[in-house]
Every structure is written in C-alpha cells, then in structure tokens.
Write a structure and sequence with these properties.
- The protein has 328 residues and is mainly alpha-helical.
- The protein has 14 helices and no strands.
- It is globular and about 85 Å long.
- The chain starts with a helix and ends in a 7-residue tail after the last helix.
Length: 328
C-alpha cells in the first residue's frame, strides 16, 4: 500500500502541472484585463504599460505562466483586480471558509439522509416506500436550484414572519450587520439561521442523486449469489444487508463522494448568488468575467488539486471497504 501511494503521489505532480498549464493557456486567449483601461483617457499610457510589464503581459503566455507559477510557489499569488488593494491570497482566504461551511454542511446533510433512504428503497423494492423515495429523488434531481431558492426566500423571508414582524429566516448574507464582534455563541446562532435555506436547497438537490446511486448499487449487490447463500444459511437479514451487501455497494458511492468533496472548495455559484453568500463559487465566476487572472487561476488550481487528491483517497478507501482489493 505504501509503495502504491508513493507512486500515485509522484504521478499527481506532473498531472497537476499539466492541468495548470492548459488552464492558464485557455485563460490567455481572453484579452488582457487592461484593455478597458487603455480606452480611459484619464489614465496615463505609461501607467498602463507599467502594469502590463509588472503582470508579464508583454511576454508570451508560456513565459507568463512560469512567472506566475514561480510566484505561486513563493506564496505570491498576485493582486486581485476585483478588489483593488487586496491580493488574490487575501480574497480567497476570506471567501474559502464561507464556502466550506455551506458546502460541508450540504454534503454532510445529504449523505446522512440519502444513504439510508437509498438502502431502504433497495431492500423494499417496488413497495410504497420505494415509490415515495423514487418520486422524491427525481424531484430533487430535476428541481432548478435558482427556482427552489427563490421560492424558499418568498416563503420564509416574505410570507412567514415572527411575532415581532421580523422575517422567519434572513433572505441572504452570512451574518447580521453589527454582530461581527459579538461573542462566539451569539455569532454561531446568528450564522446558523443564514445557513438554513442555502444548505436546504443544495441538500435537496444532492439527496436525489445520492439516493438513486445508493439504491442502484444495493440492488446490484443483493442479487449476487453470495447474498443468496448467506440468506440460505440462515444469516439474519440485518447482517446480510449491513455486513455483506452494504460494504460492496459502497464502492461506487465512495467514488461519487470523493468527486463531490472538491465542490466544498469550488462552491455553488448559482446558490451563492441567489442568497448573496460571498463564497468561492461566485468569486470564481466574477473573476473570470472581470479577467482577474490571479484569483481565477488560484480557485481553479485548488479545485483541480482536490479532484486529483480525492481520487487517490477514494482508491485507498476502496481497500478498507472491500478487503479483497489489494494494491501492490
């Protein structure tokens, strides 16, 4: 196992480098971010040329990549065009924890709900429970996030109100203005109410996918010969499901979860925009639109690295889920 992990880690390095080179090359096809400044008569051309030289836009894209990459290795991620006076590192450091709270809770809630109901749906195939779970799953898979988010805002922030007249849940944001310096428990309770609607919207959409995958995987496993043999030997049904079927059924689910984890960093741009959440999803979209290369590239790099790393994590977890899997 150790040799396998070392080989995979060494193989990840050139793969990450290739992803970054290709991504940077694609970004280089977009006009440089100073094009709008050139048309502004109040800005001196000498200042624009100085900025172009400082950013390396007077160099071919491949030389500009190595200049940017060497800066990333040193911890210099470059300035942010979206937030003048701030670096890309500072902007991401502010946005990343927000997205991790929202997307981390979404993933946790989705798995806690979806996996059990997917197992129950498979065990009770063609029962009323199975039909209800199937309808619920397809509803979640087909529901547009922006529509569900707007409907929830309408219900919980406009229609339903507390006796004091305050909306039952805040329509957007991450914290009530003025509570930034409040005690920890006060801020925790305040932030929790801001998370209810976005986490529900994202979880509702994800539960359908996870439940369907779990159901399909369990149905494939429970029809295998070794499951029939276990039942024929008189093994209790609970043990057949939990000890024999579930571990094998979890193998494709592990892959699905591993590919979902990078979304914790990438964020959900549509949901973050609807609920005015200053997270990574909306930041990356804004950075791409405004040609903020340093911020967009760092966000893309983080997502790419996590995808590659968690594919390795999934391969390692396979051996724990199914002892028959050996790595040499």
């Amino acid at each position: 196992m150790r040799d396998y992990i070392i080989r995979r880690v060494l193989g990840m390095i050139p793969l990450i480098l290739i992803v970054m080179i290709v991504s940077f090359g694609i970004f280089s096809l977009v006009p440089n971010p100073f094009a709008a400044l050139i048309e502004n008569p109040r800005i001196k051309k000498a200042d624009i040329q100085r900025l172009i030289k400082a950013w390396g836009f007077d160099l071919p894209w491949y030389l500009r990549f190595f200049k940017w990459f060497s800066g990333v290795i040193r911890g210099d991620w470059g300035p942010s065009l979206l937030y003048p006076g701030s670096t890309a590192r500072d902007v991401i450091a502010r946005r990343l924890p927000v997205t991790m709270r929202v997307m981390g809770l979404e993933l946790l809630v989705s798995l806690v709900i979806a996996l059990p109901i997917g197992i129950i749906s498979a065990v009770k195939q063609y029962s009323m429970t199975d039909y209800v779970v199937t309808v619920f799953s397809f509803l979640g898979m087909s529901m547009p996030s922006f529509w569900l988010g707007l409907m929830m805002m309408m219900l919980f922030s406009v229609v339903l109100k507390r006796p004091s007249g305050v909306p039952l849940l805040p329509a957007g944001g991450i914290i009530t203005p003025g509570l930034e310096q409040a005690p920890f428990w006060v801020k925790l309770g305040d932030r929790a109410q801001y998370l209810v609607m976005p986490v529900f919207v994202l979880s509702f959409l994800s539960i359908g996918y996870y439940a369907r995958y779990m159901r399909s995987s369990m149905l494939e496993v429970v029809r295998q010969d070794y499951i029939r043999t276990a039942r024929a030997k008189g093994v209790p049904e609970r043990s057949v499901i939990n000890k024999h079927a579930l571990r094998n059924a979890m193998i494709p689910i592990v892959t699905l979860i591993a590919l979902s984890v990078p979304g914790i960093v990438g964020g959900a741009a549509i949901t973050e925009t609807i609920f005015n959440i200053p997270g990574m999803g909306s930041l990356i979209i804004q950075a791409e639109i405004k040609a903020d290369y340093p911020t967009a590239m760092i966000g893309l790099m983080l997502s790419s690295v996590l995808v590659i790393v968690f594919n390795l994590v999934a391969d390692i977890v396979y051996a724990w889920v199914d002892p028959r899997i050996k790595y040499s």
